[in-house]
Amino acid sequence: MQHPVRLTLSLASTATLALASLPLAIRPAVAQEAPAAAAAEPKADTTEAIDPGVMGVNLRDIVKFNWGFQGALQGAGTPNQAGIGGFIPLHVGNNSVTYVDVLVNANFSDYNGLSSIGTTKVAGTTISTSTRLGYRWLNKNRSWMFGLNAGYDSRPMNTGGTDNGIPITDSQAPFFQQVALNLEAKSDKFSASVYGLVPVGKYGAGTGNIAKINSNYVADNLTTYGLDIGYKITPDLKLLLGTYHQQDEKEQNQLSGANGFGVKTGLTYDITSELQAGFGYSYDENFDSRITGNLKWRFGGGNKNKKTESLLAANPVIQALSATPENRDVRIANTMDHRELSCLNSWRLTKASQSIFREADVAWAFLVGFGTCKDRDSSGRVKV
């Protein structure tokens, strides 16, 4: 009985091995047929690959000089502005680009009843500049873009009246500057940006200097560190969520500063491949709630046929290689110069008093009689 059982097991094993080896036996035949089929296909009349995909896009054909216009409504420490800008590739590699991006904006007056810097209204018109030198690269399968850029921004600021009714005289036009550093990453759905804006020059961070902008107010530009996270809701609609920390030099001068954290959000919509519109909202304790809007219109950007345009539309990562960097405004905040109380019999405000008067500038103006040190006599009374 053992021999039949062994025979049966042997036959079963042989059959199993034969079935298992059957696909291997037919694969060479299939492989041999494939070249014949390929040889029978007619050649295309174009030199382009039939379906290159994102890996087949030549960056040298896509990442080119582009220019355009941009504009924004006033926000938290930023003015109404409009101007022209350009993206200039310096070197385009197989998977990377080195570039310079330049913006020149005209800064206009604030809304009639709302100051963009706190209380003193910005008066137009001045010219601000922003320059970035950057390097961007793609990962191996071009699913992520990474970047690093740094630069310099400048903003002269004309000043006007106040939005709280306090009269001022002797309006000044200080000049503010900053350096910037930005790290960025972007995929087809998500984006992240970490940035720092640090004042330099006469009113630079750590100098303790603040600008006298009129008879009763001082101002300086803010050191700002922030993080922005973006998400593509649809191919044309992007959501932004961010947080930032701001600080200035006012507390070193025993004045109420703008130091603290803030949050922001916004939506950006691509109307066309060249035209983009958006709005933003921010909140912090110094500026409270602010709503702004922006518009960008860019031209150029390389030689694109229909196939390449469709690939770029489906792959925002490659488009991001030639996008203009964000977060380039010189942000400014003002406060009332409570040090003027030294003119009234050397009376000094305590920190608590300063906070109270900061929230009630009209009460402070009543105390000082709308005057400044140089407008007073030796007894501290306002000269008539």
Write the layout of secondary structure elements.
Elements: H1 2-40, H2 59-62, E1 66-72, E2 80-92, E3 96-108, E4 120-123, E5 126-138, E6 145-156, E7 158-162, E8 175-186, E9 190-200, E10 211-212, E11 217-221, E12 223-234, E13 237-247, E14 260-270, E15 275-284, E16 288-300, H3 306-314, H4 316-319, E17 332-336, H5 351-359, H6 361-368
Antiparallel strand pairs: 1-2, 1-16, 2-3, 3-5, 4-7, 5-6, 6-8, 8-9, 9-12, 10-11, 11-17, 12-13, 13-14, 14-15, 15-16
* Count of all domains: 2
Distance linking N and C termini: 132 Å
- Strand proportion: 35-45%
Overall geometric form? elongated
Low-pLDDT runs: 1-51, 341-360, 362-384
Rg is 32 Å
CATH class term of the largest domain: Mainly Beta
What about the largest sheet?
Answer: 12 strands, antiparallel, barrel
Q: What is the fold named in CATH at topology level of the largest domain? A: Porin
Q: Give the strand order of the largest sheet, numbering strands 1, 2, ... along the chain.
A: 1-2-3-5-6-8-9-12-13-14-15-16
> H/E order of the elements?
HHEEEEEEEEEEEEEEEEHHEHH
Average pLDDT, all residues? 80
Number-wise, the strands total: 17
State the helix count.
6
CATH architecture of the largest domain: Beta Barrel
Structural class: alpha+beta
Helix proportion range: 10-25%
